[in-house]
Amino acid sequence: MKIALLMACVLACSATTQAAPTDNVKLSINKNNIKVWTIQDSQNPIMMYKAETTLNVPIEQAVALILDVDHAMEWVPFLSQMKVLSRDEKKGEFQLYMVLDFPFPLKDRDLVVQGKMSKDAQGIISIQNKAIKKGYMLNKNYVRLNQYEGDWSFQKLGPQKVKVSTYGYANPEGSIPLSVVNMFVQQQPYQMLQKMKVELEKPKNFAPLPDVLK
């Protein structure tokens, strides 16, 4: 059973998605049935984001794509490696190791993510992720990201329709111009949801969802 791609947006933001009160929420992108909001916190110069879209597929199919680690690199921007370190499908918990391909001359980034999957009484499926400092050896070729949080939310709107929302925040570390980082806050989630739509249009057999999401 494949489990857990939880890449809300690891190149984009910085602080915590549940952090201090935000001062400014802006609808930055609204096209191709995808909306991206950027969120500016007065205490943090790097923006957070929220993005959402609707997909004309069953909710199970949309979630299964997110959980398909083996094919994540085919549609998640900047992702060059992902592996499952541990998983407990009964509890819906897992750990992932990811490597992110940053443009030259920047060093690539890596991180270890602790994740939790759940389904509430209304049938909304959530996947919550947070970077942890332990769980995989440090590699001198990469810059380790320790500040990252990202959520996915899937709400069934009909037999063949689902609302997908993703929230994200990550500190990319290192000497990267703030303007470049904040540009990714807008563009990366938009590109990711666009590629997600394309991927779901391909004929593919997805693994069944773990019991905790049924």
From TrEMBL:
InterPro entries: START-like_dom_sf, START_dom_prot, START_lipid-bd_dom, START_lipid_transfer. GO terms for cellular component: cytoplasm. Keywords: Signal. Gene3D superfamilies: 3.30.530.20. One of its GO terms (molecular function) is lipid binding. Residues 1-19 form the signal peptide. Residues 37-205 form the START domain. This is START domain-containing protein. It comes from Acinetobacter cumulans. The lineage of its organism: Bacteria, Pseudomonadati, Pseudomonadota, Gammaproteobacteria, Moraxellales.
